[in-house]
Amino acid sequence: MKRDLSAFLDLTRTLAALTVFLAHLSKPQFGGAPLSVFGELSHSAVIVFFVLSGFVISWAAERDGGAREYTLNRASRIYSVALPALALTWVTDNFLILHYPGTINPIYQYEAVWKYLPLFLTFLSDFWFLSEDAFSNIPYWSLCYEVWYYVVFGALIFGRGFWR
Predict the structure, then answer these.
(1) Fewer CB in 10 Å around end: N or C, the chain?
(2) Is residue 124 packed enough to be buried (19+ CB in 10 Å), middle (13-18) or exposed (0-12)?
(3) Cα atoms found within 13 Å of the Cα of residue 140, Cβ hemisphere only
């Protein structure tokens, strides 16, 4: 990928992510009435982000060379985001539960972490009809969609026989 195109895609992805971030801040509990325009743009920004991700992943799959490299590169990319996100959510939630009881809604998940954490780590918390937030990390759903897109894309590109 040429440097100019890569920079343009990075800028576009950054602007889309910033739009979604500002949309979250536009919620009334954050006093974000002045940011309400971002709330209206957030869905479009998510779509832009996913389309760009699809474009970049098709380019990356060609560069990766084979199924093993593709799988390792995608797993390292996803887990380098997912593990810190889950850890930060865990720390933040436990702080809020301890110091501000009643502010964290999915407290039932902390009572059965053994059941929910594998669901989050395998990205099955948003899969078909299952929709389970990763503790209080509501945007985690997007990683679940991205991972399963990677799986289907990889199976179509690198699979043979039944898998293809």
Answers:
(1) C
(2) middle
(3) 28
134 or 33: whose pLDDT is higher?
134
Q: Which is nearest to 137 in space by CA: 90, 81, 73, 98?
A: 90
> 18-54: per-residue pLDDT in tens?
998 888 888 776 667 777 888 888 889 988 988 888 8
Give the CA distances from residue 84 to residues 28, 78, 136, 157, in Å, rounded to whole numbers and listed in that order. 27, 10, 14, 30
Helix axes 113-121, 67-99, angle to 10 degrees: 140
CA atoms within 13 A on the CB side of 57: 24
For residue 130, the surrounding DSSP H or E stretch is strand 130-131
Q: How far apart are CA 64 and CA 73, in angstroms?
A: 8
Which residue reads 């992943």 in tokens? 57
Q: Rounded distance, CA 92 to CA 86, Å?
A: 10
Residue for token pair 């800028």: 11
What pTM, to 2 d.p., does this model score?
0.76
